[in-house]
Amino acid sequence: MKLEQLIKLVREQMPEKRWQHTVGVMASAVQLADRYGADRSEAELAALLHDYCKYWPIERQREAVEAGGVLTEVLEYDKPLWHAPAAAAVAANDLRITNTAVIDAIRYHTTGREKMTLLDKIICLADYIEPGRDFPDVNGIRNLAEHSLEQALIAGFDSTIQHLLKQGQQIFPLMISARNCLIDELKGRLH
């Protein structure tokens, strides 16, 4: 499927405001890919599809996550996390995206994972810092992104974790693992 066709499909899945967010994530992802040496077409594709299922009914998201068979443990946690593995499953199964790096970047864009790939980091971070985002310390995270994907992601995870703690919500364990792994990476403990 050509990019123009995918853009049309994605745009039909969401309200205009979310489409503008997606456009911002695409632009941020391409910019980060250029800065850090990733494949810009993979970054653009993963960013385009990252929120594909966000506005689907929750039971349809559950079905997509179950059909994908990966990261199904997310179903035991807050529903706003479900759209990421749902979108990865739909991209692979329905849209016939065969690039596993793109699928994984979509799947883990809300939670991160241990030993994140460069593309994983770019999509997760682009989602945090796209120009339409406005939350406390987003500018600090944007500034960190100029110099270090890892430091910016740690700051993004810290912001999310603090928000969840203030709301009295659960924290998905994979996010903690991702954060810890990024800290180890910065300290040179990962090979």
Architecture overview:
By secondary structure, the chain is mainly α. The chain has a domain at 3-134: Hypothetical protein af1432 (Orthogonal Bundle). It is built from 10 helices and no strands. The protein has helices at 3-12, 16-36, 40-49, 58-68, 83-93, 100-107, 118-129, 138-145, 149-167, 173-186. α3 crosses α7 (118-129). The longest helix has 21 residues, at 16-36. It starts with a helix and ends in a 5-residue tail after the last helix. The mean pLDDT is 95.
Features:
191 residues; mainly alpha; Hypothetical protein af1432; 10 helices; 65% helix
Q: Catalogue the unreliable spans.
A: none
Oligomer status? single chain
CATH topology of the domain at 3-134: Hypothetical protein af1432
Shape: globular
Summarize the helix and strand pattern as letters.
Answer: HHHHHHHHHH
Q: Gist?
A:
With 191 residues, the protein is an all-alpha fold. The protein is 65% helix and 0% strand. Helix 8 (138-145) runs antiparallel to helix 9.
Chart the SSEs and their pairings:
Elements (H helix, E strand, L loop, with lengths): L2 H10 L3 H21 L3 H10 L8 H11 L14 H11 L6 H8 L10 H12 L8 H8 L3 H19 L5 H14 L5
Helix pairs in contact: 2-3, 2-7, 3-6, 3-7, 4-5, 5-6, 6-7, 7-9, 8-9, 9-10
